[in-house]
Structures are given as structure tokens and as C-alpha cells.
Amino acid sequence: MKTNHQRIPDRNPLAGFRVVRFATLIAAGLWISPTQAREPMDTGPDDKIIVESGEATPVTEKVRAAAPGTLVAILVKPGDNVKKDQILGHTELAATKYQLDLARHALENIAPLTAAEGQAEAWTATRVETEEAVRRRKVEKIRLDWAAGMEKFHRANHQAQLEQKKLQRIQYEYWQEQYEARFLRAPVDGVVTEVLSEPGKPVGYAAHVFTVSNEASYMIPVSVPAKLVQWVIANSMLPIRSSRSRFVTRGRVDSIIDDPSSPGRKIVRLLVSEADLPRGPDANPTGMTFDVLLPQDAARAG
Q1: Has domain 18-58+216-301 been given CATH number 3.30.420.40?
Q2: How far is residue 24's CA from residue 26's CA, in Å, rounded to a whole number?
Q3: Per-residue pLDDT tens digits for 117-156
Q4: Which of 47, 115, 195, 294 falls 20 to 30 Å from 4 in CA-CA distance?
Q5: CB–CB of 253/270 below 8 Å?
Q6: CATH (one of 2.40.50.100, 3.10.129.10, 3.30.70.890, 3.90.1150.10) for 60-90+184-208
Q7: Beta bridge partner(s), residue 256
């Protein structure tokens, strides 16, 4: 198949990525080789972007405290099987829960907002009636000025109540985040291999409290420009191919985090079962890199 190549200028943020026609990749069940796909090509309805991953590592996740505090409860022990997002322990909750409940009550109390809206609507109706009365010369114009002034006042009060409700939502979301930060959750399915603290002990911000491992899975990091991440969906499956062979499988999007080494980029973390990776005496998944296919919409955005 004849293929036309077009070089993307160096100023393009996607320079270095390979955009290829998906029909070519799946022909005969194989992808085209990385050397063939190195130059970006025109994108069309069947185009996708191939991104090279970082090295695969066995899943061993450190669970760190998201907020300082005193550890109140540890709910697991080494050897326990856990599911992703399962609560492993938490720090003190009472004070933060109290603030969260206050913020929720303020947000849910819409009586002042409803009253302000009703007053504004009532004075609008009064102003309209007064305008008609002035037109018929039944009342003095000063009455219309008064009605218009009251309408303006109550409209401003209603707007202030709307702004107050926005502020209350921000406060509620803040305390919701603070409350959630008191819980330590399993980042992946696996087995608890370490518990490094005990109830009653203080923990600092980012303190390592638990370790969760999964010997049957590997984590593959993929650094991607932030503009392309919006089309990568958590728990979706992305096709991947080993850079050292023609082995093709899929990785599940576990999470998307900021890339600390490169502003403007994100790290897409893929989980792949060991059973889905190459096998054999020379096929050790640790340290392997992969070519990862991003969704079609990402290629169109590029």
C-alpha cells in the first residue's frame, strides 16, 4: 500500500509521536514496525497515534497519607486481599466531618435564595403595574421611581444569594476533599504486603503507611501531552505492542496523573495482567517498553 508522509514542524507539540493508519496496524493481526511508523502521516478517519511507554514494573504501590493527622483505625493486616479503593485505614474524622456537615447544611438550605427570588419577581410585577398606572395618569411618576428602585434592590439581593450559593458549593467541595483525604485506600487490586504504622500514631503528609502488591499484574507508564488525555478514559482498554516483538495485547487505564518531570504532560498508567504478556525464558516483562495506541479522537486533535 502506498503511503504519503508529511513531516510535522518541530514547534508542533506532537512532534516525535507516530500517527499511522489503523487499518495498516491490524492487517494480518500485526502492527507496522516502529521504524516504519516513525514519521507522522496525514490523519484521517482511521488514524491513531502511537506513543512509546516507559518501562513495565510489577505492581507494588505505596499507600501514603493525603493529609497529616493521627491514625485512628487500621482495617487490614499483611496478607489480606484487597480491592481497588477499599479503605485500609483512616485518621481522625470527627472535626472534618463536623465541618463537612455544616457546609452541606448551608448548601442545601435554599430558603434565603427562594425568598430573594420571590421578592425580586414581586417587585418586577409591581413596577410593571405602576408603569401602566403612570401611563394612565392614575399615580404620580415618583411611585414608579420607588417601585423601580425596590425592584433593583431585590434583584441585586437575589444575585447576591446566587453568588453566596456558589461560595457555599466551593466550601462544601473543599471539606468533602478534606474528609476523603483522611481515608487511606487501596490504589489497585492486590495483597497488603506492609503495614508501617499503628492506631494512635501521628502520620505526616505523604507518609508511607501501607504497601499493596499484585504479582500477577504490571504497571506501564505512558507520558502523553495533556491535550490528548481528554480522550483517554479510566478503565478503558488501549492496544499495546511490545517494542521488542510483534506481541499485541491490551492494557487497562488505571489512572491518569500529572507528569512531574514534564509540565504540560500527563502520565497514563496502564495495568496489564502477567498472563497477557509475552511468556518464555527470555520474555521477562520487567523493564519492557511498549507502543501504545491512543484513541482516534486524539489523533484527530493532533
Answers
A1: no
A2: 6
A3: 999 999 999 999 999 999 998 889 999 999 999 999 999 9
A4: 294
A5: yes
A6: 2.40.50.100
A7: 268
